Structure formats: C-alpha cells, structure tokens
Amino acid sequence: MQKGYTLYWLLPALIVAIIYPILTDNVMLRETIFLILLSITLSVSLNIIMGYTGYVSFGHIVYYGIGAYTSFYLMYAYKLNLVVSILIGGVFASLVAFILGQAVLSLRGAIFAIATIGINEAVKSLISNIPFLGSAMGLYFDFSIYENYGGAIKAIWLSYYLMGILTVFSVVSAYCIKKSKFGLGLFSIREDQDASSVLGIKTKLYKSIAYAISAFFPAIAGGIFAFKSGNIEPSGAFNLVKSIEMIVMVMLGGYGSIAGSALGALIYEKINGVLVVLPYVKDLHLAVSGLILLIIVQFAPGGIVGLLTKYFKNLRKVLE
Amino acid sequence: MKKLFVFLMVIVFAMLTTKAFARDSILIGFTTSLTGKLNAESKAQLQGLQMWANNVNKNGGIYVKSLGKKLPVSLKYYDDESNKERVQQLYVRLINNDKVDFLISPYSSDLTATAAIIAQQYGKIIISTGAAADDIFAKGFSVVYQMYTPASRYLTGALDMLKKHDPKAKKVAIIYEQSEFAKAVCDAAKAYAQKNGFNVVMFEAYTPNTTDFSAFLNKMSSSKPDALIGGGHFADGETLAKQVYEQKIPLKLISLIVAPAVPKFKEIGEAALYVTAPSQWEPEVSYSQENAKKLKLSYYGPSVKWFTDTYINTYHQEPGYHAAGGFASALVIQKAIEETGTLDSNKIKQALDRMNIVTFYGQIKFAQGKYHGLQIGHEMVYLQWLKSDNKLVKEIVWPTLAANAKLVFPYSTKFKK
Q1: Are the beta carbons of B180 and A235 separated by less than 8 Å?
Q2: Which residue numbers delimit the Leucine-binding protein domain (chain B) (predicted)?
Q3: For the CA atoms of chain A, what is the radius of gyration?
C-alpha cells in the first residue's frame, strides 16, 4: 500500500494539542482535550476492525468496559499501580476479544453487528451479578487512593498524560497496521473475503488479530477513565450509546481512514461539547448536533475524508 | 481613533473590575440530565431547584451578614447527557470558568460520585441531591453532603414497622428485581433483618419484566413468612402485589419499593389496599414546626403545604421526592449562609457539619467521622394504600414524625372481610 503523509501532520497536531493545556496549566482545556483524545482513541481503534475489515462492531464498548473493570478492580482490591493495572486490563480485553472473535467473526453483516450487541449486554449482565465487582451498583474508589499519585490534582493530570500517550500510540499503531502486509490482508478481506481466502490469506486469523488489537486501546482508555472518574458501574462502563457514537465518529470522518477517524471524533466531540454549554440550545443541543451530523452524512457519505478527496485529489496522499 | 480605543479599553476594564470585585449574586452550579436515561428524574429535581431560586429571589435574595445586604441567587447548569464523561468536564467548568459558589450534584449515584471527585479536588462544597448510594460516603470525601436517605436504609424502616406492630414476627421474605438499585436496597435490608433477629426465609431475585410470580409465591407460601419486602420497578411491583392478593397469602406486612409510591398503583384496586412502600418524601407528610418541637429541633424553610401548592401552581403537577430533594438541597445551603453570614466555604462547611434541622422534606443531619456527609437525619417515609370514602388513597404511616394516618396491620385483614 502506498505510503501516505497522515502521520506527518496528524502526529504533530495531536502532540501540540496534548501539550498546550500542560504548558498553560489550563484545567478546562485539559478536560475538553481529554474527552477529545478519548473519542479519537475509541474511533481510531474501532476503525481497525470496522474500517479495515468491514466488520461493523456495534458493541465495541464491551472492551472499554472489560478493560475499565479489570484495571479498576486491580487498583481497588490489590492497590496495584495505575499503569500496570491498565496494561493488564488492555491485554485481558484483547485476549477476550481474540477468543470471542473465534465465535463471532465467522458471522457477517447485520448478524455480526447484532452478535456484538449481544456480547456487550451479556457481559454487562454478568458483571451486574458478581458481588466482588460491586454487582449492579459498581465500585467506588477511596479518595485517598489519589494520595499515591501525589494527590487528586496530580492524579487527574496523570490520567491526562496517559490518555495523551495512548492516543498517540493508537494512531501510530493504526497507521503501521494499515501500511503493513497484514493491513493489506485486512483490506482485501473487506473488499472480498472469499477471494482473499482463495489467495491464501488466513482470513479468520487476520480478523481475530485485528479484533484483538482494536479491543486493546478502548480497554486502556476505559481503565484511565475509570481511574479519573473514581467509580465504575456496569451501566456506564458498557453503555451501548457510546458504541453507537464510536460508529458515528468513524462514519463522519471517513470509513477506513485514520485521519478520518481522528477528525470524525474531533468534530463529533467538539460539536457536542460546544452545544452543551451554549445557553441558546440548552434543551435542544442533541437535536442540533443530530441535525449537523445528518447534514454531513447526507452530503458526504464517504465522510469528511471522502468529501475532501473527491474535490481535492491532491489531498488523497495527505489523508491516507 | 486612538481616543476611541482608549475609551473602549476603559469601558472593558471597568466592566472587568466590577465583575471581579462587586458580588452581585450567589451562584449555584450543577449539571442535570436534560437528555439521556436519567432525564425524567433530573427534570423534577431541576424544577425543585428552580422553584427554590425563584422563591428566594422573590423575597430579595439571601441576607449575607458579612456583606451587609441581600444577594439574589442564580443557577448555572449544563446538560450532562446522563453521561459520566461529560460530568467531570462540566464540573471543572463550573468551578473554574463560571466560578460558582456552591455545587449541587447531578442525579444518580454514579454521576454524583464522579462529580464529587472534582468538587473534592477543588474543595468546593457539593450537596448530593439525587444519590442514595452509601459507598460514596465511606470514601474519604470531606465536602460532599447527602440529602437522600441512603440505600442501606430504604427498606429497613419496613422491618422496624413490623417489629413495632408485632414483636413476635420473625420470618421475612425478600423478593427483588435483578437491577442495580433494588439489589443494593435488598442486600442491605437482608443484612439489617439478620442483625435484628429476623429470619430471612427467602431471598431471591427475579429478572426485569417478570410477569408471572407464581413460582416465587408458591415457594414463599411454604415458608409462611410474616412479611414480604422487595420489588423493583413499577410494572413488576404492581404485578407482584396483584398476585399476592390473588393467592390470598396471609402476610402481616408487604412493602415494595417504587411501584406502590406511583399514583397509578391504585388501578389494581383491592390488590393495592394495605400495601406499603418507602419513599424519600410524599406530599402527604406531616413534617411541621410542632413535630420538630417534639424532637427539640428547629424547623427551617417553607411548610409542606406551601411547597406542594406552589409546585402544583407552577408546574401543574404534584411534586414527587425528586423535586422535593432538589428544593431541599438548595435550602440547606441557604440555611448555612444565613447562619454563618458569609459565603466562605470553610464556615459553610462547619455549619453543614453541625446542622440538625427539620424542613418540609424531613429531618436533615449529616454524619461526621468515617462516613462524613452521609445523611443520618432523614428517614424514609412509608405510605400505605388505605380506603377513604370508598376510594383508595395513600397515606403516610411511618415514621411518626411524618405520619398522617395509622398503619393498618396486618395486611391480611382484608382477606377476612
């Protein structure tokens, strides 16, 4: 696959955005950028399975939840270090995704989408019944846990740094996968699974690995967010609405494109973030953001990247 | 041009300085779920808060002694979309950008716990108005204060009521919906029952949307319990009460969460009769100056009648406990400001720590020490469906401070008619 320039502008832009609140010590900006980074991570990682292989995972938030629960519990019960806990959470969610992938990735289209919703709901229900995970009421951190990280203020900054690193890492990983032979295999599965199988691509293995990788980043993001928020419960950790938002972000930016997923997440989060504090649309902000999305999708079915490359052919290399 | 520029600069500077130095209102900040799954409860809570602000401002504001004048109040709120991610962002905004004086929590325990982290981080007092979880208050927060009776005491009153009316009653059956809240409530009720010498003869969960309880009721009947407690949401609670009635199970007491507190419950007719339910607050409660006197406590704020009538006049519907909780949470801030005469967070905190008052919403007192901020004054009120003029009406029967009718005991009396 042709080498593009996405990373040459996307990475510096990301790094500047991440560093800016740190240099200016602007907490409000930190919160906003934290949410944008979280959305970019979710969108870019969903794109690995959805954009590269064409499998629309409707319940992808399940891995966010699994990662969040695993790391939260390790910190809560065993006082394990944050970084170690979230890494274990990430690896565990990937493992679960790999195993579940064996079962669900043989399904296609709508059936696969429905199966992924089923997995999310089943895991949510399972966790709601496990007493040591706090059942349906979830678990709450002792506020003093933040003392181990230099106090709550520093701990929240720490979660911001970690989210920044994760986002950069997820973007670079998604790029490397896309440009690798493995990525080429995934794209061939997306275009024609049967044909690629005939050509000798181990489609099942490829899909399973892609699914496991796409589960890793949301799981870590979930761990970081649960640490920052100080509590966790099934309805928030496995919130199906978030899954749908992830799909919207990918579609909005451009299916299959890293720059597209990142831009889609940025725009979606920004629209929501701005509207939510605008006093004029206080009760209507969701309707307004829905309308904006509708207009974008209506006039640019290939997402923003699709629209841009349609009119500006030269941008193709920049956005690939 | 240069003159105009200087003139404009002066105006801008003047505006900025006035804003910085002259305090013109008391700003209360919070997020509310205008959208998302918690929308209905949040709306009622918001209406309660807005009614409080309108009432305060109609009377010229709150008198702040240290400033020597009355200050009006204003509410600054954003939609949190029932979403935890949004909550932290918005509470940081309320504290840093909007510079609110005091915070009120969003609705629900998990959103509150998330907001509490931010409030604690900045040392801003936050009144948790719609959160019943106990756990938040065992986690070392020093600026979070709870208005609701915690989940652990939702159904314990039913057991106290049973003990008071029949000290010999020992067997209790607990049947509850497998949902977040019902499970927390019933786990706590089970522990309380065992601690108080009751024998929990059945403790079983049913899946949400269960429409046939016969298997549960058959099993329960064989163990001959004195009381049935539990429930979950409206539809299942209503069905459960109906099937207990149809099978004529000779219970002494039946107390279910949620369903019997909904006015629509009376549609099941005779089956609703004598069923009891806990509620944070009901328009029928009788908290008053006189009742407060009996407890040697001071009464603060409007009467129950004033609150109920004004709410009905304003919003054309009867207020529920979400609305009452919203109003009352702002009322405690008002009381603390009036008492200390300042807006200083530390002094307000001290006032909240020693607060022990009765309001239209009930008694309010916060725990100190390990469970700092946990609500220990407010009791769940128990309503019972009774007959008046051949019509089903709900009356408050427990605790005595709030009661306006006597509990009809045992429940099975109705089968003997």
Answers
A1: yes
A2: 26-373
A3: 19
Tell me what percent of the residues of chain B surpass a pLDDT of 70: 94
DSSP labels for A16-72? HHHHHHHHHT-HHHHHHHHHHHHHHHHHHHHHHHHHHH----TTTHHHHHHHHHHHH
- The residue of B32, B117, B122 whose CB has the most chain A CBs within 10 angstroms, and thus the best one to mutate to test that interface, is B117
Task: Name the residue facing B79 among A135, A156, A282 (closest C-beta).
Answer: A282
- Answer whether B88 touches A (CB < 8 Å): yes
Domain spanning A6-315 has what CATH number? 1.10.3470
ipTM associated with this complex: 0.86
- The answer for A 214-233 residues in CB contact with B (under 8 A) is 225, 228-231, 233
Give the per-residue pLDDT at B1.
53
**Nearest Cβ partner for A136 among B86, B117, B183:** B183
The pLDDT confidence band at residue B2, using thresholds 50, 70 and 90, is low
d(CA A145, CA A153): 12
Structure tokens at A20: 């800016």
Which of A128, A144, A152 faces B117 most closely, judged by CB atoms? A152
Distance from CA of A298 to the nearest CA of B (A): 25
CB-based contact B384:B275 (threshold 8 Å): yes
Beta carbons of A276 and B114 less than 8 Å apart: no
Q: Which residues pair with A139 in a beta bridge?
A: A232
Point out the residue among B36, B93, B110 whose CB comes nearest to the CB of A28: B93
Six token digits for residue B333: 């801030």
**B179 in reach of chain A (CB within 8 A):** yes
To 5 degrees, how large is the angle CA A247–CA A300–CA A271? Answer: 60
User: Do residue B271 and residue B158 come from a single domain?
Assistant: yes
Q: Is the pLDDT of residue B174 over 80?
A: yes
Q: Which residue has the higher pLDDT, A22 or A316?
A: A22
Q: Are residues B240 and B339 part of one domain?
A: no
Do B158 and B274 have their domain in common? yes
Q: Do A276 and B79 touch (CB under 8 A)?
A: yes
d(CA B275, CA B253): 7
Residues B135, B259 within the same domain: no
Q: 3-state class of B373 per DSSP? A: coil
pLDDT of residue B18 exceeding 50, the answer is no
Within 10 A of A169 (CB to CB), how many other CB atoms are there? 14
Phi-psi region of A180 (alpha: psi -120 to 50; beta: other; left: phi over 0): beta
Distance CA A2, CA B42 (A): 52
CA nearest neighbour of A117 among A213, A260, A246: A246
Q: What is the CATH number of the domain that holds B187?
A: 3.40.50.2300
Q: Which residue of A has its CA nearest to B135?
A: A140
> Is B5 inside any structural domain?
no
